[in-house]
Amino acid sequence: MTWDPDAIVFSPLDVDLSCSPLRAGIDSETYVLGAFNPGFTRLPNGNLLMMVRIAEALKEPVTGNEIHAIRWDPQRGYLTDPHELALVDASDPRKFRIRSHSSKVMALTSLSWLLPVELHPDSLEIVGIHYDKSIGPAASFQEYGVEDARISKVENTWYMTTCSVSAERQCTTLYTSRDGLNYELQGIVLDHQNKDMLIFEGKPGGKFHALTRPTGDLYFAYPPSSEFEAGPSINLASSPDALHWKPADTPLIRPRRGSSSVMRIGGGTAPILTSRGWLMLYHGVQPGTVVGTYRTFHAFLGADDPARVLSVHDERPLLESRPDLTSHLRDLRYLENVVFTTGLVDGGDHFIVASGEDDLACRITRIPKRDLGLEANLI
């Protein structure tokens, strides 16, 4: 192994915006706010593939008394919508909130699309940036973009879940591929706010299984004596075909009081089968910064029954944000203390882990299997 065991491998500096799908309609100057949260898999040729989220933002979203949002329209393509500046909260560089609504209503000054980046498995050298295979909005439920891909290989098919954002709904969408590189949109699979759908890389009990995490603005309190804290939890669902999903009746993993994940938790990597059961990496969030401090933890689920939680390891994180890794990007940084793990590939005696670092760049980390109590062989 010749590469650094923890390194930034792709950043906004590596993106050629002349090849962006937004060039089909946006004349205003844009920049890459972040190239991060990559879906991650191994291709048939042995190379690694990151499906990188490119958040492309307006350089000057404010003109006079108006602030502009980027949007895709099925008839007119990419365009910008003006909103009266005095009526919005524009403190976040990624979005603004429209104050006149009783509900929380947002618009985005950036639009996310997905860029396949191919890496050499040994050196992590970029061997291909596949702009011709980039994925942008293709349906009305994606008018504000396609975000945070997660990739699972089940039998001979690659399944990629994404978050699709629009005024119609915030939903989870599914793409499939026969080669890991060319993906076809299959449509909506979860019709509610769900940020972290992860399909198991296998079929326990002969069914597809997935981690899900529905979110919202309202949660009901646990009793004071409970070990759990109210908030988003990681749940389980099953499906006969990866299109139609039945949620499990009980939650899977919940935030625990007193832990460093008390603010929220969410799935990180597609569960893979090991000698200790299904290994899943997930993020836990603790209050402190603008969006909270994100760290990566892990858990094991039963091999034959993934609804059975064998162990949750939330005492010591596997990964934390490392500001030194993005010191060369400090002028572009707008968040801190965030590592958002999104992919896991077997590397022999170690795992290769892909993460988004500070919503800015793609980080690859090598984690020895012995650190997780595993032998070199995966199963």
From TrEMBL:
Keywords: Glycosyltransferase, Transferase. It comes from the Bacteria. InterPro entries: Glyco_hydro_beta-prop_sf, Mannoside_phosphorylase. Coiled coil: none annotated. Belongs to the glycosyl hydrolase 130 family. This is Glycosidase. It comes from Luteolibacter soli.
